[in-house]
# Entry
Amino acid sequence: MLIIVAQDYDEMSRKAARFIAAQVLLKPNCLLGLATGSTPFGTYQELIRFHQEDGLSFQNVRTVNVDEYYGLPASHEQSYRHFMQENLFDQIDIQPGNTHIPDGLTRDPQTYGEEYDELIVAMGGIDLQLLGIGSNGHIAFNEPGRYFSAQTRLVDLNKLTIEDNARFFESEDEVPRQAISMGMKSILGSKRILILASGAGKAEAVREMLEGPIDPMVPASILQLHPNVTLIADKDALSLVQPA
# Structure
């Protein structure tokens, strides 16, 4: 795994945006796997700037997001569809039909998950997958457990994940308890993976991802098996990692 050190969150975001922009320039019709939350927010702001000031075009780019809260309509202000529209899609020239986010209202999560995985395959697989890492080591909403789950599916959210995400809601009670999450098969099938980490609160998860055994209790540790992963992290997030 290639590790790129940033001084702080802003530098991490700039470096990540340049990484993604290079992919778009290299393959204008690439399939990007995208994530949501506070970690990639700055990266998306930089991509918007690249589009508005430097003319970076997303006209032919296609996207698949890794997860969505289960039970929230796309119009809900805390849905990940709303997040992506507000913080990226509505401010660049991407075609709406080229953006795909799991349906949080599907009545048949199992069939829907199978179809979502098939869609990714039909589009040629993910060229570059952007990920964050949870404080408990999750990637997408693949939570710590007894085994790695391959398929896109309905998942129960970990208590720590609910607590971490409560800051986006009026109260912890409003945080959905389930989500539709891309599984490890599609994530590991990506040609390249870019994972971001910022802040001391992610330091233990980053250490376990990099230095610990491959363990489903630390879902991000499975990235050790992928041949082309880049971690961009600030110094706080890398504070527990032993120097090479």
